[in-house]
Amino acid sequence: MKTLLRIDASIRLTGSHTRELTNHFETAWLRANPGGRVMRRCLANDAVEHLSQPSFDVIAPESAALIEELTLADHIVIGSPLYNFGVPSALKAYFDHVVRAGQTFAVEQGQYRGLLGGKRATLITARGGNRSAGVSDDFQQGHLRQLLAFIGIAQVDVVSVEGTGADARDRRAAMDRARQAIDRLLEPPVWLGTFSARDREEIEQLRSGQANAIMAGDAEAYAALCSEDIHLLIPTRELVAGKERFLEAQQALFRSARFCNFRKTPVRVERSGDLAVEVGRQQVQMETQGQAQGIFAAHQKYTHVFRHTPDGWRFAVLMSNPSE
Fold first, then answer.
1. Are 208 and 148 in contact (CB under 8 A)?
2. Of 141, 200, 232, nearest to 208 (Cα)?
3. Distance (Å, rounded) from C-alpha 313 to C-alpha 285?
4. In this structure, are residues 25 and 3 in contact, taking their beta carbons and an 8 Å threshold?
5. Using one digit for the tens of pLDDT, what is the confidence trace for 147-167?
6. pLDDT on residue 294
7. Which of 16, 75, 142, 241 is spaced 20 to 30 A from 25 at the CA atom?
């Protein structure tokens, strides 16, 4: 059974645009996950205490309860309006409680490692005005992405609505577009052929493991998701065949490039014996935008071949192309 953790950060209990959209998200998520469970955390009705020295020095009961919710969730949706260019203070307090060494992240050989991998998050943000061209006046999305990635949640979708302070017609149009974006995000892929619940779970774990490894720049973790005869076919690069060459290629890539977002939307998965082919769309965002083609293209279409091995499903072919 899948579990959704819904976090609402708006101070408004009525008239909140982010709450209206998290309501829509919850309904759509339950439709896509029949029998799923929803945990709700309203930071206006049930405010999280801002950290003090005593609560910082130990894992307070409140922190433990919040971390347990986060650990149990398969999908986290956060509704957060833009307040003074950043996140609401209640949401900042929430993350101060849940970003904890040994609980949601670890330090290993001087490197940070998130402990909540395998989860998916969706950010639903709103602002009264519209962003200005060439001006960085929204420090919320980047902040939340970084916090989630730090604790191991690399697969992050964003639905952003602007102009909520505009006239009623423009506001309704913006909200309609946001609801449509939510529906597209939660539209499940078409599964063709015989897949057990375990098959689907393992293939979903491969997707999230890939996103986590790419975001962390961890070539070894990425290679561990692949079969021994893995083939990598991407634009502007030579064909890579075999796990050893794949590992070398990814190590070279991660030395020269850093990814700040990697999101996949599978459309169709079809099985034939011990092979399954998945096609879909993926979005890539780099820390620096010096390259915008091939593997660095922001919008791509992909084809993956999975092979069922004695150790479970593994990537056998990875292929992508720009779709701009």
1. no
2. 200
3. 27
4. no
5. 999 999 988 899 999 878 778
6. 47
7. 142
In which residue are the tokens 């949401």 written? 91
148: tokens are 């989630």
3 state DSSP class of 241: strand
Angle at 142 between CA 221 and CA 51, to 5 degrees: 95
Mean pLDDT, the chain, whole residue set: 89
- Cβ neighbours for 119, distance < 8 A, ≥ 6 positions apart: 73, 74, 75, 76, 152, 153, 155, 208
**Calpha distance 46→156 (Å, rounded):** 25
For the segment 54-71, what is each residue's pLDDT rounded down to a tens digit? 766 666 788 899 999 999
pLDDT at 297 over 80: no
CA-based nearest residue to 24, from 161, 202, 116: 161
What pLDDT, on the 0 to 100 scale, is given for residue 292? 47
Residue with tokens 């989860």: 119
Which residue, among 271, 119, 94, has the nearest Cα to 205 in the 3D structure? 119
d(CA 136, CA 119): 29
Q: Three-class SS string for 95-111? A: HHHHCCECCCEEEECCE
